[in-house]
Amino acid sequence: MLKIKDLKASIEDKEILRGINLEVKAGEVHAIMGPNGSGKSTLASVLAGREDYDVTSGEVDFMGSDLLELSAEERARIGIFLAFQYPVEIPGVTTTNFMKTALNQIREHRGLEKLDAVGFLKKMKEKMKLVEIDQSLLSRSLNEGFSGGEKKRNEIFQMAMLEPKLSILDETDSGLDIDALRIVANGVNTLKSADNATIVVTHYQRLLDHIVPDFVHVLYNGRIVKSGTKELALELEEKGYDWIKAEANLETA
Amino acid sequence: MDSKFKNILDQELVPKAEKFAASLNGSAISELGTARSEALDFLKTNGFPAQKAEAYKYTNISKEIAQNFDFSFKSKKTDLSIEKIKNLFVPDMEANHLVFVNGVYDPGLSEITSDEKDLKISTFAEVSANEPGKLESLFGKHAKSTRDAFTALNTAFTNDGVFIEIPKNTELKLPVVTYFVADANEGENVSFPRNLYLIGQNSKADFIHFTKSLGNHKTLKNQVDEIILEENAAGSLYKIQDDSDISYAVGETKVYQPSNSRFSAITVTLNGAVVRNNLNIDIDGEGSEANMYGLYLTKGKTHVDNQTEVDHIQPNSYSNELYKGIMDENSKGVFNGKIYVRKEAQKTNAFQSNNNVLLSDKATINTKPQLEIWADDVKCSHGCTTGQLDEEAIFYLRTRGIEEGHARAMILRAFAREVIDKIHYEGLKEYVEKEISKRLSL
Question: Coil, strand or helix: which one is B207?
């Protein structure tokens, strides 16, 4: 589904990603872990199409499309979804209205008819249950005055509505208490299928107790320095990142 | 202070105003005489604002007028129909429709549907003939010539005009829509529309103004609306200013509110060359409420200056002001909000805010809150923000599949919504929303 080859990206001449290689197949869950400043969020942003970064080299193939050639909205339309670490507050735009616009623009792109009000409402009701989100929250201005947990549930609600092929969850566990974490993870797990894939970007292992990854990658200094299975995450939880750093530094030295 | 343009206006317009007064001869409405003399005296003594005059600091109005008009005052009227005029705005709006062409009321083009006992519309000449003394007791008593040269100029040039009265204990169901059409098909057009409104005790009425210039020549509109509420009355004035790129406007809306009255002014400026709105509200009674909302959506070289003033004279009153601007290209915005709270006006609540989004590096806004408070037990606040469009918010929407232009427009419409939601007529609201969408190329 997703093939990243030697991806390098920088911001203001500072190189953050220094050659990422990663392949994600349909049906898989990949966790990207790593210490602060290792480039995890940058990778998520570059895949979603954030223009602040300069991609200096590499290729990203997503289901046959050259992802790096596409705008953020085009990426969303072919099935990329980024759950933000810090969801943006937009006063005056309700989640409901904004989802209707987004869904219909995506459907239009895919040659599908627009959803009518009844169809949209039905779909919304169904997805609301999934993340235990209340109607009243969706009628309010997007994320404005939402608690941390509400913002993240709203992200997963949007993901459920848009039914992406590849979901990238950027530090979705940050700022969540255990109940919210369970709800968010539950939503992600329910949406999982043989046709889609998930990349979970996280600093901590705790989210991975709930969203169990097939593969774990450790990012350090802009490179994936170690890959393994879910046991690697447990090892990191136990031993911290220092041994990874030492190993990686040894290799570059 | 540079007085070059002031001098030109003083030399051109003051004698013209005097000549106009002389030319009226027998047709002059005597009840307007005192107000006209005061206006002429003011103009002869003070003339027009010099450059950087405090009240016109960011709008060099004398220069704009001096450079753009030759004061020939040659306006001709071409063929117009009420349908044609309505089609310019909200064609099927259920309302009373009044048409002013070149500043003069045209009863032939107007359509008044409300019952005459609920809505009395008379020209100044008619009211003077039918109810002697009434016009003189109201006209110019609140919109004072001594406070602004352009209120004086309008007063000096007023002989026609319309008096709109809602008698006591009347709730006017249909709004009064007034179209101010300047016909500049055959040459520059200068007009001085002047209206007087009286909303009687316990009565309620809404007014909607639409402004339009026709033709390819420049227009100058110097308009004064004097709105008087009686006790426990309520009213709204919506001004939709969608003029041509070569239309100039300067004038005053003056509102007088006694006890337990409520008034809202909603000013939407969509286009024009230079638009200067003076909105002044006196709250001269307890338990009254004034709301001032504004939205200016500018592009090109449009210059919009909103000067508002609310004077809390008596205790226990409330005022709320919210002006929002979306400015693109080389447009300029000015906002100056004055709030006066007199010594007697204890327990006043007054709030003001002005928020702006600049869409281009060349657009500018000058915003200035001005609070003068002599009472000690009041709640007042003011604030202003100016910024660019939130790029992070746009990116967020785009990652959900929403096209960039659409995302920008969504955010701007959301920004404007707070003001648009104050429009209580569906058709009018849709019209404004449609104009905004058009502007944001949605």
Answer: strand
